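Consider the following input, taken from an annotated entry for Protein-lysine N-methyltransferase CHIRRI_LOCUS4919 (Chironomus riparius).
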Amino acid sequence: MTEDTSHLNPSKLGTKEYWDTAYETEIKNYADNGDIGEIWFDESSQTRIIKWLKKHKISKDSSIIDLGTGNGAMLLELFDEDFTNLTGCDYSEKSIELAKQIASDKDCDCITYKVIDLLSDNVTSLGTFKICHDKGTFDAIGLMEDSAVKKEIYVKNVWNLIEDNGLFIITSCNFCEEELEKSFHDYFEKFEVIPSQTFQFGGKVGKTTTSVCFKKKTL
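Applying the prediction step yields:
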């Protein structure tokens, strides 16, 4: 594995306890007022990914898994665009409880949700997929204790989840394109950078998030 130099300080955002508590609150809010909760990096980030999938004529029955699915918002958007083979996974039982309830209320019967830790040895029990999608999960792993080791485990496990010639699409707010490419280099090759919103400050142009599509390498 290429040496990882993109270290972040550990944070509560890298703990399961934080996310269990957050989703327990969102479950109550959803029951009280129908609010599905936060959409990580806002809806525009999801829209850009789906627009990219349609541009590249990804078949609507392609198997797609959303890694660290949270409330399942990304999969709901894919469902609304007529994608039919959808799976979401998360290590928070409360996340999956919320996502299942929302999907049921919206009659999204083609979405499967599973509780699993993406750093565990039994990730392959999920099967394999044409497309793996990550919006913020790699970021959260980067905020864990011993993040360098855990990021290596994650990269290898994602590789095992993807079919030959499959794609891995990641959106990050913590890591730039070069850092993502370095982290995934041993198992993936960069296929395309997906355009992200930009901002200008002090005469310089920057991006709030980075989205990259990688293709699985044959090892």
